[in-house]
Amino acid sequence: MSEAAPLLASLAPLLTEWLPRQRWFAGKGRPIDGLTPVATTELTPNLLHLLVQVRARAQTHHPTRTQNDCYQLLLGIQDVLPPHLSPALIGRPTDGPLRGRTVYEGLADPRLATLLLERLRVPGRLGPLRFSREPDAEIAPNLTPRLLGAEQSNSSAVYGETYILKLFRRVGPGTNPDLELPRALAKTGCTRVPAPAAWFEAELPGTMPMTLGVLQPFLAGSADGWQLALGALSVQADFTASARALGHAVAEVHLALAEALPTTALDRPQLERLAAAMTRRLEVTAEAVPALRPYRSALRDAYDELAALGRDGRTRRAQRVHGDLHLGQALRTASDGRWSLIDFEGEPARPLAERCRPQPVAQDIAGMLRSFDYAAAVGRATGTDWAERSRAAFCEGYATVHEDPREDPGLLRAHETDKAVYEVLYEARHRPDWLSVPMSAIHRLAGGHRVTGVHAP
Question: Which of 67, 198, 306, 400 has CB 3.0 to 4.6 Å from 414, enough for a Cys bridge?
């Protein structure tokens, strides 16, 4: 294959048009100002692996300010694209080493997706790419792949209903938590999270290895908690037993993470910094979303209460957590009703170092409590206490094996408020019709120190 710079120069016009249309591209609505090659690897003569630095204008009031992100691309190359792959078309370069050939999304091609699995089956290196496999993992050859289409920030392919490969699209130096945490949990014997069977990384000069993809067992016959909750709501069924079992599962995972990885105690300076970060997010959001402004003072009370814990000489435990926990990240297997947790990547929009930082488990719990509220709103549970009962049941299940989150209402209220503020900004930017869902929570959280489903202090 020719040198990376001429190749990318010929692909740049096509990628500049194609990238903003992809669900996993973080720079939607922002013009691409430039592409820089990071690494180019020929996996096969018809499958090209690219790491590309994409420069896009940042979402700020300064039109000249830019944001640089590194993206992972798998490009298939053929002379003529078969009709069934036409939706995967990227384009045909008019010059350069691929002039006149057809370039397309490689993961959409079952033949090329199978070749990628073969690379994962046999550990080794190929250029800057290193493929690894757990010694006891048995990965059968020739598993039929199918591309999943529902993801936002990554791409996934299921192989033979046995394994699922998550391909990270926006990547950076360091081990992705979606590899690090499930591997650590597997060593403790925790079976609530599918253990990675294989993975691959890029090792580039002067930087830490960056995680590119993880292969894990696929939980066939399972449904996610969001689907199950909406299904229950559609027939006005109770969800408390499921919520209670889910709380139990989350607590088991938290205990295993605390066993597998270092924990710390947040003292006064750390609690004050945590409260200050939440306050900054509130102020930024209030400036962007006028509907939030009347609640600023009342919401700041929750963060002041969090900071006051440190001033009173108290500490709070912090550990590695899921980081983006909601009903969609929990799977229940139909055969035994067992809950599992997936997608430990954390919030992809946040820097990797922040996502790897120990946090109170209240962050995860707050995310799940907010998810019950969302399900109730989407499932039109108006006039019922479905969300409140589900939230309380989740906490009860959690308390069967871990500390009851309702016994620390100040910490939980601060995290739930922070999550609701995040949701306000997200909905205002992306789904304005949904803004009423987090605003309803804002109204409740600003109304006093007692949170629905949570004991008063």
Answer: 306
CA distances from 412 to 167, 202, 240, 404, 408 (A): 33, 38, 20, 11, 6
pLDDT of residue 57: 74
**Domain-by-domain residue ranges, the chain?**
4-217, 222-445
Answer yes or no: CATH 3.90.1200.10 is held by domain 222-445.
Answer: yes
What digits encode the pLDDT tens for the residues 409-445?
999 999 999 999 999 999 999 899 999 999 999 999 9
Give residue 103's Cα distance to chain centre: 28
113 pLDDT tier (thresholds 50, 70, 90): very high
Task: Report which of 213, 208, 128 is spatially closest to residue 169, judged by C-alpha positions.
Answer: 213
Average pLDDT score, the chain: 92
Give the DSSP H or E segment for 55.
strand 47-57
Say yes or no to pLDDT of 70 above 70: yes
What pLDDT is recorded for position 345? Answer: 94
330: phi > 0 → left, psi -120 to 50 → alpha, else beta; which?
beta
Tell me 405's DSSP state: G
Q: What is the pTM of this model?
A: 0.92
CA distance 273 to 281: 12
Question: In the numeric block, which tokens belong to residue 333?
Answer: 């297997």
Distance CA 357, CA 306 (A): 18
Q: Sign (positive/negative) of CA torsion 50, 56, 60, 64?
A: positive
The CA–CA distances, whole Å, from 69 to 217, 385, 413, 415 equal: 29, 44, 34, 29
Provide the CA 119 distance to its chain's centre, in angstroms: 25
Query: How many Å apart are CA 160 and CA 142, to the nearest integer?
Result: 8
Q: What b-and-e string marks burial along 143-159, b requiring 16 or more CB atoms within 10 Å of the CB?
A: bebebeeeeebbbbbbb
Give the residue from 413, 405, 407, 408 showing the smallest Cα distance to 447: 413
